[in-house]
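Open question from group meeting: does this chain pack into something compact, or does most of it stay loose? Before anyone orders reagents, we agreed to write out a predicted structure and look at it together. Recording both the input and the output here so the notebook holds the full record.
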Amino acid sequence: MTRSKLKTILLAISISLVAFGLIFFPKESLEASKRGLQMWWEVVFPSLLPFFIVSELLIGYGVVKFIGFLLEPFMRPLFKVPGIGGVVWAMGMASGFPAGAKLTTRLRQEKLLTRIEAERLVSFTNSSNPLFIFGAVSVGFFNNANIGILLAISHYLGNFCVGLMMRFYGRNEKEEDVSITKKTYSLKEAFKILHETRMKNQKPIGKMLGDAVTSSIQTLLLIGGFIILFSVFNRLLYIVNITELAAHFLGFVLAIFHFSTELALPLFSGMFEITLGSQLTSQVEDVDLYYKVVITSFILAFSGFSVQAQVASILAQTDIRFQPFFLARVMHGFFSAFFAYLLWKPLYVDMYVFGNDNAVPAAGGMGLSIVYSYWDFILQYGALVTIFSLIICILISIKTDRQTKDKIIKG
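Structure tokens returned:
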């Protein structure tokens, strides 16, 4: 039997089993679907939408090229990607999954990256955002704001190491030349590139903004579908005891590293969906906080099959391959867990346990308070932001359809 036929059979069986699960467990499936919808509705949509819209405008008006030109001497030697990768990296960290994939795809569509450069870039520009790490995980799940610093530093250090490792990826493959090549990286040259890009873009600001809103909401609707799907899928696996069987196997692996086997079930759940995995890890009793933080760090970095499926669907719009991204997520998981293990004493024990448990480092106090305030805002008004944004998208679509029909009639 050929590999292609085997793949067809496996896919058909998998989809059929999920369909049977939905039929035999309708109540549980509905509850899981509602949980995924609530998370998307109240948190994911309102937190990602502003970043998606702004990133579309930054690309359209040449700001990405402007900043990228100035960052070229930094990004090229370190990660073997163009300077525009620095913008994607920053936006990916600020807004979280899967913003890095979205931006990388757009840059590839604009022919500002080669395929190999795009595959390197997407591997280390997708990460959890500070809002999720400090707000949802540290405060919401663990009820311990102090572990936020440790989780965040471990997470982003792991991503940095992935970027350094992936610079060696594809070095033997021939690439097309799409990068900006200038010998002198001056502010004057950067502004010239900015102006040339803006002049090439003939769209008025209203049209640009409308397209940015529509494109961003379409991507977020896609993300919402994956969140709901994997929420249901994860629940079905638990009902039919597949989760428990896999947890037994993971328990043996954890025992090798002297971790409690009680963490196996949260770890397996986290490999599918990071929110559920992080929450279950925080709820495990009679396990030291140190072990729970290391496992949570791995879960956040691996990002779960749900997020990976979102990224795969976004990358499918171009010729960017998914396999390097998946490999990078595995590396990121181990790097982050290792840094959480290594930095546990200096960033948590020494800083908080022997001092004031409620203390927040002076260097990050104001920044963390802003993050927590923004998280509270999202929890209170996120659903309203989602409704308002969807109404705007519908109105823009109606207006666009009318303009298209008028042009056809006049033509």
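Observations to bring back to the group:
The first helix runs from residue 3 to 24.
The chain has one domain: 33-167+185-410.
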